[in-house]
Design brief:
418 residues; 80% helix
Length: 418
């Protein structure tokens, strides 16, 4: 197994090739701690989306306010994601993660108190969403850039796939837990539960075995450091292809999630528990897909699998938007999750495997910037749903995304064969 420059050999035991890839990856003590921490982080993230969406829609009865809320959630990735990736290259990654979790802990605790006191309104919801977005913008590129330090390059794809498994398992458990807490206890209790999850995660990150790595000399300005990274990353068709498809998916497809309360209440006539079920359905399909990828050390022609999965998700979202029956909607969202598994599992893998160790954080920062384009889609689909209705808005956007993804694959041949 080839080791990266910053990889700590003492943290991973050599594994025979015949051993299942997930077992080989989880044999790294540091990665076990990181994976467990990611499980808690993703659980809290999916919970806060459902709780905030339901509280705001119940409070304002406005699809536009849901769009504004979702735009504010993603805006920090656009503003700070690239800088967050550069920070991951220049500062100790463990403490960057701990600091990010501390911010989320503070925000969730404050939200629980304000809800209990009856002082939580739409302005507070906007602040809470933006603050949690800042935490995400710093956390996500750092967390992904840390993976090769713990498992080495040979097992990076498998480790990222296992991260996707944790994300998608919590896409089932998080929304369901949030829906039950909101329906049968209170929204304040849901935020208190999230705060408890962040406390445990901070403890895990502090205990995580991680050998100190040599940090690059801080020569020159951060702007020069970023521009140099962009110049070197743009030479890779694989990275360019992933970034472009990520922009299209995050602008045109993923914003459908902000309208789930609208579909749940107005089209499918279900309550908060039913809303949690819609959010969980796509997670179920994603778990199956991510587990299939996690069982292998590599995916042949991962670029093609990535863009085909993106198209599959787009087509299934079109079908979901047109469905009028709750059961049909659940099935289509579960099928969309299979496509999303290919997208989310291979997105980071292709970028990490195509970037050098010195560019790893900045490469993940560029990907975070692409993910941060979501606010444009959130506002666009919100405005379009007001003008044309949620069904037509979601279907038109997903159809356009499928066309654009195919065009990228045709224009970048080396991206298809990576």
């Amino acid at each position: 197994m080839t080791l990266s420059k910053d990889f700590a050999p003492a943290l991973v035991k050599p594994e025979p090739k015949r051993r299942l890839a997930p077992l080989a990856t989880l044999s790294a003590p540091g990665y076990r701690y990181l994976w467990s921490a990611s499980l808690l982080w993703n659980q809290a993230r999916w919970m806060d989306r459902v709780v905030l969406g339901w509280v705001v829609f119940d409070m304002t009865n406005s699809a536009w306010n849901l769009a504004v809320l979702e735009a504010l959630r993603w805006l920090p990735l656009l503003l700070f994601g690239l800088a967050g990736g550069a920070v991951a290259d220049r500062i100790d990654r463990r403490w960057v993660l701990i600091g990010a979790q501390g911010l989320a802990l503070l925000v969730c605790s404050l939200s629980a108190v304000l809800l209990l006191l009856g002082l939580f309104d739409f302005r507070v919801a906007m602040f809470v969403t933006f603050a949690l977005g800042v935490q995400w913008a710093v956390d996500w590129p750092t967390r992904r850039a840390l993976i090769p330090d713990l498992v080495g390059r040979d097992l990076t794809m498998n480790a990222v796939a296992l991260e996707a498994v944790s994300q998608n398992v919590t896409r089932i458990a998080g929304p369901l837990m949030a829906g039950v807490l909101v329906a049968y206890v209170s929204s304040a209790a849901a935020f208190a539960a999230m705060a408890a999850l962040y406390v445990v995660e901070i403890v895990l990150l502090k205990l995580m075995p991680l050998r100190p790595r040599s940090l690059p000399a801080r020569r020159g300005s951060m702007l020069r450091y970023l521009s140099d990274g962009f110049e070197r990353l743009s030479a890779s068709q694989a990275i360019v292809g992933v970034v472009l498809v990520s922009v299209f998916m995050n602008v045109l497809v993923f914003p459908y999630q902000q309208l789930l309360p609208v579909f749940a209440r107005d089209s499918l006539q279900v309550d908060a528990v039913g809303l949690g079920g819609l959010s969980a359905a796509s997670g179920l399909g994603s778990v199956v897909g991510a587990m299939a990828i996690a069982m292998s050390r590599r995916v042949p022609r991962s670029g093609m699998v990535f863009w085909v999965g993106s198209c599959v998700m787009s087509v299934c979202v079109i079908g979901f938007a047109a469905s009028q029956q709750y059961g049909v909607a659940l099935v289509l969202l579960a099928m969309s999750g299979l496509g999303q598994a290919a997208f989310s599992s291979l997105q980071s893998t292709i970028v990490l495997s195509s970037a050098t160790d010195q560019l790893r954080g900045r490469a993940m920062g560029a990907l975070t910037l692409a993910i941060g384009s979501t606010p444009f889609g959130s506002l666009e689909v919100g405005a379009l749903s007001v003008a044309l209705g949620a069904t037509l808005a979601v279907a038109l956007n997903a159809g356009l995304c499928a066309v654009l993804v195919v065009l990228v694959a045709l224009r970048l041949p080396r991206f298809r064969t990576v």
